[in-house]
């Protein structure tokens, strides 16, 4: 675009004045000269329209990258959703696993129970805690990816 | 004593490690390949590599030893070591990967833009890395001394030299292959003997793990005491023993009660109960907090995440690690429990960390099967030392080369590796008698009280400031470091002071969080101006490519 512009770069800020100075004596050429800056101005208008059209297509995306209030609110919502999910699942672990020492302490009879000849605390901690952790992790990955998919859909949704 | 298959097995593991390392070196052509594996490692490989790197001497030897010694209460160690990856997954994995930070100091600078905070983080990374490296080298010395009868320094020296050379020459790309291989080796080395041990236990008529009269010696045994202790003999007499004392027990004789070791049946079998003493409960929760929250702050764990291509794959990798590590941690319990039957002499000698390597021969006899399995276990143990030490060394060396030497070149990285490997070797050769798992537990406590609040607040809270982060790390992490130094070097303590320093996380972690939040709120103006952009970068889904 710059390469196509016939006016030398340093004079570009005011092309009409430059053209006027150069062609002042001949009225006929002045018309032509006045058309030329008009032409280049029209070129700019077209480009601006093109870029405006781009803006419209990815409006939400621009809100995000330009850090507008809307963009901030959007990313804030995603962060909150992901944090809430992480906190909820850690609460599950805190109750499910973190409650065990307390349970064994206040109700020693639970610790003495046996299942298939194995004391319950050994079974819970030594075996079952690991699949429990993996299950929580798997749930998190699924739900976190869903949150992100919702966000992506929101951002990439066509405006009209 | 001495098993002629152990040394060949260890040599084979070492050569394989070197071999895969050099194979990887041939693939590493650019500096990026060398340092961060060009970020093209698939989640499956990466998960196995992270698992391989994570399962250290503490997991391979220490957990079984602790279970043998203390019983059900220490099952929280393996549970916590695994659950640490869940905390990492929930709060850190994907945003950290998207941040593009390679090390913890990088994260400090990216998020808070402070060079001074970066320096502080560097100091903590190096401290935690070295604190974690020393027990790996000690474990190597102990294993080789126990199985092959070599002097203690040999094992430590072998591991230090092999690992330093491999990291310096192979870099990260090579390490990924090595670590992935070593995860599967470690799993096999515990799983196969565990099957034989379980069959042997069946064949022996399922001897009770906790006979009502307490553990007894199955065969005539001579015990060489390694740690000072007070024994209470069955007739009620007590006797003080020192390192080097030799005690002989006849077959069928009960194991004497040993001070500091849970020999009583109910104490070992049942969780500590409330009532007379709350210290047990406090220590348990402290341990839970340290291990659950400490994993995310370990330097060698974070470096790995950079090799994932994006945040979503970092998440999937972490889930994979959680599953792989969970499978592994089913096994040490079997060794700790069967150790009560087949190797009760370790309770008297104090060398409970050796239960995993001694159990195969003790249970199956010194025939070919027993010796082969012992060699396999030794190979797995060495894989544990090599892989964890490699990972730690890579990250400590990375930090030293970029933040201390100020060079990002391959040459600078090699120089930094030699420095990073030399210091813990000197420490390991001079500080003998630290408990492998205890030291590792302390490293977790320091990480949980310094980097965990930094990462969690840095990722989820816009209000964090550099001053707040620095204050939190200094107060919380500093308190944990003091507790570590008191435990390791200080005078022996009793009662609550002993509990508070041996398991500091329950008070240092909340302290670190509180200070970090309070100081950040007080210095609100210092919050970085570009926090909105950082948040966008950390949390926006990868598919948007913003």
UniProtKB/TrEMBL annotation, chain A:
Residues 1-43 are annotated as: Disordered. Residues 11-25 have a biased composition (Basic and acidic residues). The keyword Membrane applies. Keywords: Membrane, Transmembrane, Transmembrane helix. The chain crosses the membrane at residues 83-102, 122-141. This is DUF485 domain-containing protein. It comes from Micromonospora qiuiae.
From TrEMBL, chain B:
It is a multi-pass membrane protein. This is Cation acetate symporter. It is found in: Cell membrane. PROSITE patterns: NA_SOLUT_SYMP_3 (PS50283). It holds the Pfam family SSF. The keyword Transport applies. Keywords: Cell membrane, Membrane, Symport, Transmembrane, Transmembrane helix, Transport. Its main location: membrane. Belongs to the sodium:solute symporter (SSF) (TC 2.A.21) family. It comes from the Bacteria. The chain crosses the membrane at residues 6-25, 45-68, 74-96, 117-134, 154-171, 183-203, 282-306, 318-338, 372-400, 412-433, 439-461, 473-493, 505-523. PANTHER family: CATION_ACETATE SYMPORTER ACTP (PTHR48086:SF6), SODIUM/PROLINE SYMPORTER-RELATED (PTHR48086). InterPro entries: Na/Glc_symporter_sf, Na/solute_symporter, Sodium:Solute_Symporter.
